Amino acid sequence: MKSKVDNPYKPLFALGIVSGVLGVIMWPLFNYQIIGFYPKQAHSQIMFFGFFWSFVAGFLMTAIPRMTGADFASLAAVWVSIMLVCAQVILNYTDYYPYSGFIALIQFGFLLNFILPRFLQKKKIPFDGFLFFPAAFGMSILGVLLYYFYKDSRFLVLFSGEAFLTNLIVGLGSRLIPALSRLPNAFMHPGMTTTLKWKSTLLKVVLLNISFVLEVMGFKVISYILRILVVGYIAIDSFGIFKLGNVYSNMGSGLKISILFLWISYVSRFFYVDHSTIASAHILYIGGFTLLTLLIATRVTLAHSQTSLDYELRSSLIAAIIISILFATAFRWMSNYDFNGHWLYLSLSFFVFGLLLWLYKHLSLVRSATVQKD
Predict the structure, then answer these.
(1) Cβ–Cβ under 8 Å, residues 4 and 73
(2) Range of 11's domain?
(3) Is residue 39, in this structure, part of any structural domain at all?
(4) What angle do CA 22, 5, 130 make, to 5 degrees?
(5) What's the pLDDT tens digit per position in 109-147?
(6) DSSP code string of 34-85
(7) Number of domains composing the chain
(8) CA separation for the pair 291, 373 (Å, rounded)
């Protein structure tokens, strides 16, 4: 039996899709009285600590060993990550969702334990975007601790969910998004070096994370202005959202759309600071986080399955996934606080359809790569 797993993304990405579907169908299950408790907190916890966390873990456990030249993930570590996600789904579906934070704390600690020894072994930060990593994990752990101290789920959603993902996207995205969008001079070649912009990067880290602290303290307008400015600057300067790629690709277009939705979400929250908070938040969660996650995961799957990256250029399947997620975002905005109306069900339908389309392609690529390897 293999003791090391070189591609943990394979089971974790698939598990993420299953978690995402289970997370959103809680609403119709509640509306039809199959679930006997109001699933607002359980839904958000499955999405953040099941759906998104599975993709984060799959990506980091696959990429970090290659970045650092350290050992691949152990088979035991992959199984632990899978069981943690399963525990999240089970707890939240069985009305034990208040205990979900304990599992989330273990999940963040698990990833830290996986990442830190490998970077300490290399003793080098590959690019300045990695300065967002301490903030991501610091905010995530702080969110869980404050949740149990104040008995307020806002800390889980804002710190352990939104801040965690935003820091990772901004940090890793500064290198990944330009490359995946095929922007000029975005690829690093062997022997090339980069100048770390410590001061400017640290300033962005501080301003971004202060905005989350200000929001939970009640200074919403200031917090949204800060995020509009920081995310907008990073989108233009680091992600190159207005730059043209060397060649058009559906992948590049989808990435730019997802980054635009990140920014639009905060603009929407600023203008509707006292209204439509859930609708604005889901612009971020669906059009921003979900679309970006699926597209980056597509590149990971393609690269590790020995499939030509030209698939990203004009793939009708990638286009269909992007369109599905965009419709899901629009209909979720229109449903706002209505959790039992036709707009919500349309949003859920397009969201699940987009996830299942992605899973279909993921499994077919994994299968073909396994056949070639054999």
Answers:
(1) yes
(2) 1-124
(3) yes
(4) 80
(5) 999 999 988 888 776 666 778 889 999 999 999 999 999
(6) SS-S--HHHHHHHIIIIIIHHHHHHHHHHHHHHHHT-PPEEHHHHHHHHHHH
(7) 1
(8) 30
